[in-house]
Amino acid sequence: YVPDTGPRVRVNQVGYLPGGPKNATVVTEATDPLRWELRSAAGTVVADGESTPRGVDEASGQNVQTIDFSSVQTPGAGYTLVADGETSHPFDISGDLYDRLRADSMQFFYAQRSGIAIDGDLIGEEYARPAGHLGVAPNQGDIEVPCVPGTCDYSLDVRGGWYDAGDHGKYVVNGGIAAYQLLSTFERTKTAETAAGGAALGDSTLRLPERGNEVPDVLDEARWEIEFLLRMQVPAGEPLAGMAHHKIHDKAWTGLPLAPEDDPQPRELHPPSTAATLNLAAVAAQCARLFAPYDAAFAARCGTAAKTAYAAAKAHPERYAPSSGVGGGPYDDTDVTDEFYWAAVELYLTYGTKAYLADVTASKHHTGDVFAAAGFGWQSVAALGRLDLATVPNGLPAAEKTRIRASVTDAADNHLATLRAQAYGLPMPANGYFWGGTSNVINNAVVLATAFDLSRDAKYRDGAVQAADYLFGRNALNMSYVTGWGEQHARNQHSRIFGHQLDPSMPNPPAGSLAGGPNADLQDPFAANLLAGCEPMFCYVDDINSYATNEVAINWNSALAWFASFLADQGDA
Ligand code: 9MR
Fold first, then answer.
1. C-alpha separations of 443 from 52, 204, 221, 372, 426 in Å
2. Is 104 helix (H, G, I), strand (E, B) or coil?
3. Looking at the predicted complex, does its ipTM rise above 0.95?
């Protein structure tokens, strides 16, 4: 299988910010420098120069050269880069490039909502659908969901929230980090250095049913998930009260595609886990501080849930979710020291209490290296705690703050070194192409962006901005992994809701949906058959059947949403 990868000059197909870095990669047999030309839409050569040979790139197996045209700062549409007889896809130079991505990447969450009819007037008729999983036949959930037989003798109303990904499952661990990252997108705008995007995240900035309620829309969207997370907490008086059920999903896997309201499977609540309980504690604590100005009663409800969840996790510190199962994913994790750290940090940031601080400082993650080269994700959340300690105002001694902030800029320096070593210029080493890896690239960009927010050192902003190039087409496949963005973009992501490839009456994913991306482990049969032996950056196919390379997921889009908001703020850089 040889994919059509188009012109050998690889660019960010969305474009480049006027004051930002501008790099491209040429796939070539040449080992000597090549002439390149930047042409305007009218065909005029506006800049030229020589490329830099990079040899064989480890992640793609290709012989490549790089082009740096950062000196060009003149805005314009329809530029092309020409080298080695090839003309790149067209792109813009503009400060407005990412303005719409801020909302597109967040609008994805509304389309994923469970338990509410999706209003076509808000996001387009093709996305309109009845509410899913409110117990209306053929649905059997999620109003009164029993536990997996033999694990508890009550049922819970766990309606609402977002469908996790291409399936109809709802998982507290992953819902927690996705809700956190939307809240964090908002929280980032609360300091003077980062206030620019605040208005762009305010009320009536998204197309949501809650618009016009005087609450920032990003908070409204996060609340849809938080309300679900709160429902997953074991009620007082039951065994394991205060803990959170790990997940709720179908008893058996369903086929593709399948609208949520047509899912006939029984739904089951899976036993509580320490990881889910700590995710709930962390997000609910963050909810308590961010909702306080808008809805004191909801903030208080979040606060109570956070404290009881944290206490319950301490009482049951080793309840691990199993690594196998049917009808849904496992989200298993047998090291929850990082979840304990993250939850303690969020509680400390909200309440300033000595006891929470003591847990923060006692954690090995408080001084350990929490920023792995291949990024962080649902299973490794210590970085979330560290980033928040570095950015959210708190009462730590000045020397401690300095140390914590330095740990972020040190991590960013490492990501910059990786980016420079990669011929495709992304902050991800060649071993970082795994399930959902595009979100890890973005999370490394989040570290770079946070380092910029903290230091205002332009090298970090440039590194973060350059990471976007990979996502939008500067890669071995010449492919943007965000639907609707770039000339050649992913559109057939694995999803039961957006099943257009298999059922033309269904829509493709909405603009702003991120694909999991190249995954050298090829865990689904479709990709395994088609792509066996692929070089890491080639291990991707835009086909609905490939769940290991081409799924959508809330924790991946939440990373994109955070990053998009940062990028949109850099327009005038
Ligand atoms: O994103 C998850 C990835 O890190 C794991 O390797 C993979 C296998 O356990 O599961 C991914 O999460 C999936 C979840 O289990 C079920 N819903 C779809 C998620 C995205 O593929």
1. 28, 27, 21, 11, 12
2. helix
3. yes
Query: Which residue puts its alpha carbon closest to atom 19 of ligand 1?
Result: 165
Does 167 contact ligand 1 (Cβ within 6 A)?
A: yes
Nearest protein CA to atom 5 of ligand 1, as residue: 435
Of the candidates 92, 217, 221, 551, the residue annotated as catalytic is: 551
Tokens 């800029």 -> residue: 409
The answer, yes or no, to whether residue 573 has pLDDT greater than 80, is no
Name the β-bridge partners of 49: 36
Token pair of 492 as six digits: 């057939």
Structure confidence at residue 191 as a pLDDT band (50, 70, 90): confident
What is the CA 289 to chain-centroid distance, rounded? 22
Q: Which residues pair with 377 in a beta bridge?
A: 380
**Is position 542 annotated as part of the catalytic site?**
yes
Name 65's Cβ contacts closer than 8 Å, sequence gap at least 6: 25, 26, 28, 30, 33, 34, 51, 52, 53, 54, 83
192-249 pLDDT tens trace: 788 888 899 999 999 999 999 999 999 999 999 999 999 999 999 999 999 999 999 9
Phi and psi of 413, rounded to 5°?
A: -60, -40
Say yes or no: CB of residue 329 within 6 Å of ligand 1.
yes
Sorted by where each starts, the structural domains of the chain and their CATH numbers stand as 130-362 (1.50.10.10)
* Secondary structure of 342-354 as H, E, C letters: HHHHHHHHHHCCH
Mutate to test the pocket of ligand 1, among 435, 494, 513 (most ligand atoms within 8 A of CB): 435
Q: How far is CA 454 from CA 417, 448, 460, in A?
A: 19, 10, 10
Give yes or no for a contact between 558 and 453, defined as CB atoms under 8 angstroms apart.
no
pLDDT in tens, 420-457: 999 999 999 999 999 999 999 999 999 999 999 999 99
Taking residues 538-546, report their average pLDDT. Answer: 98
Residue 553 CB–ligand 1 contact under 6 Å: yes
CA distances from 160 to 110, 120, 168, 214 (A): 11, 19, 12, 22
Which of the residues 346, 359, 542, 569 is marked catalytic?
A: 542
How far is it, in rounded angstroms, from Cα 30 to Cα 13? 24
111-122 per-position pLDDT tens digit:
999 999 999 999
CA 329 to ligand 1 center in whole angstroms? 6
Model's pTM, two decimal places? 0.99
Residue identifier of the C-alpha nearest atom 1 of ligand 1: 436
Nearest to 377 by CA among 163, 184, 555: 555
Compute the distance from residue 331 Cα to the ligand 1 centre, in Å: 7
Give the count of alpha carbons within 13 A of 267, CB side only.
30
